[in-house]
Write a structure and sequence with these properties.
The strands form two sheets. The chain has a four-stranded parallel β-sheet with strand order 2-1-3-4. Helix content is 48%, strand content 14%. With 239 residues, it is α/β, with parallel strands linked by helices. The C terminus is likely disordered.
């Protein structure tokens, strides 16, 4: 499949990573940074793409239906997906892309099944890129002042998050870490303790917070944790 990627300059490394990742799986990719080149390739069919990947922030989606814009102004009916959408649900990203392609382009596609594999690869590439990007940030760890008024179990969990601040820990991983030396708390106890720690951190002045991604929790220093990672690294939950 031939894939044309429209990146923002600040996200070019991310898009090139996606392109290289897909090329490894025999997909043919071309990445451009400006709309002039992008629309030239669409209009002239020099690349003749089967799928378009566009950085969400290239367009104002509040005033423009980009799908209709491409169809009406450029007669472009190439299936299109967006990356770095601040509202997207990372857990259901592939399903969302699949639904968009089926609804918007369904009558233009003869064989949708060939897109499914590519969408999964794109999602894998984004997750892999975020993991590697976070690894670079994780090289610096911080000393956190202990929040006050914690129960014994909450304190143990807080210690565990501090010692593993460079990565996300699932409830099971937290339990396994604690298991080495202490009595293992239940899942409910851990979740309640994390909630209490979050509340104490809000009251403190140590610029720390606990963030969640999927089923993992991580303690971060808010002054040094790039906000771009929080928004693009898999839509971190507050719960």
């Amino acid at each position: 499949m031939k894939i044309l990627v429209l990146s923002l300059p600040q996200n070019i490394q991310q898009c090139k990573y996606i392109s290289d990742y897909l090329s490894h799986y025999k997909e043919e990719c071309l990445t451009v940074e400006n709309q002039a080149d992008f629309f030239h390739l669409i209009f002239t069919r020099e690349f003749n793409a089967d799928l378009l990947i566009i950085d969400y922030n290239h367009f104002n989606h509040l005033i423009l239906n980009v799908y209709k814009y491409l169809m009406n102004d450029y007669f472009c009916y190439i299936p299109t997906i967006f990356i770095n959408d601040p509202q997207e649900d990372m857990e259901a990203r592939v399903a969302y892309w699949k639904n968009i392609i089926e609804v918007v382009y369904g009558n233009k596609i003869e064989n949708f099944s060939r897109y499914k594999k590519t969408l999964i690869l794109i999602d894998n590439a984004l997750q892999d890129y975020c993991s590697q990007d976070n690894a670079q940030i994780d090289k610096t760890e911080f000393n956190f002042t202990l929040p006050l008024h914690l129960t014994a179990s909450a304190y143990i969990i807080y210690e565990t998050l501090i010692s593993s601040q460079s990565k996300y820990l699932s409830i099971r991983e937290i339990k396994n870490t604690i298991k080495k030396n202490k009595k293992v708390p239940s899942d409910t106890t851990i979740k309640c303790a994390i909630s209490k720690i979050r509340n104490e951190l809000k009251k403190s002045d140590n610029n720390a917070k606990i963030i969640k991604y999927k089923d993992g929790y991580r303690l971060i220093h808010t002054n040094d944790f790039d906000s771009r990672q929080i928004s693009s690294s898999k839509t971190i939950s507050k719960n």
